[in-house]
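To: structure subgroup
Subject: Chain for Friday's discussion

All,

I'm putting the inputs and outputs inline so they're searchable in the archive.
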Amino acid sequence: MGENTSLVPTSDRGENSVGEALGHAIALWADGSSDSESLRRHDIVRIKSKAIEGFFAHAGKSAHEVTPLDVKAWRGAMEARGLALATIYCRLSFLSSFYEWLMRDPALDHHIQKNPVRLARPKAPKAYQTESAKALSDEQLEQLQAVIRAHAEQGEITAQRDYALFLFFVVSGMRRAEVLGLRGQDLEFRDEGILVTCRVKGGDYVARMVGSPAVSSALICYLTAAGRMNVIGKGGPLWVRHDQGREAVASEQPLSAWAFASRMKDYAREAGIEHFHLHQTRHTFARIVSESSGSIVETQDALGHQNPATTRVYVRRIAVKRDKFGDEITRRMKL
């Protein structure tokens, strides 16, 4: 960037508009600071860019004019909007990273010498103290399933897709990027269920069996209705957009995580569940596995966690360990 480049927001193009130079800087930072191997790279880059653009639209200042008070004011505005503490902290961290990136640019180091976020960022919130950490109760799970299934049974293709997706999430316990990133070649239908082979968090490839007949049935119903059964065994995305009719399906535009999460929030509200977060499906899976197995080790394995401490965050109550051997022991003692 040359010294004459003005990293100034453009206020006359709308609330979320930024100047061309600033927009380019944000795009370069977001792209360069995001993991190229991440399954959610596209979404992460978009979220980062939107956060920084939002700050400069709010501050209305060039990058070198921003002060800690401007950052504090942005933080206050987000709190007033009711955003979660974890979300606010994440956005402030993005802004801090952006300034650290600017300060490393030789063309800007004379103009931007301090990171204004350092004095205005709060302490990091405790891990998982958000709605996304709450597992659904059995009753809530049943209500949500009933709502989505009712829409699917009306013949809505998007609802049929959503129902198959919902079951996939809850029954497999897989992460959002893992499920939404599935491609036809990742699945193989077998007598005992669906064999899913995909890259998981950390970069490893893992094969798992999803044995529920309900999941297989819902997925087949969706793909048949969409005329896409031939995607199995091929490289196209498993889940595609249907909001633009046949054109979107023909071009196999993959369904975004944001779009599906938004639809799930709508279903949840219809089911009487407020503040729903898609990650709750994974916590619900963890709760049920823990209650059924009575073992933190089995729950850890089912979730694919390397560290048992992470699993303990998911399992809020110590599961009652099953008595698997008492009957045999007492039988041998002839009691």
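Points worth raising on Friday:
The two ends are 83 Å apart (CA to CA).
Residues 138-274 form a domain with the hpI Integrase; Chain A fold (CATH 1.10.443.10).

D.
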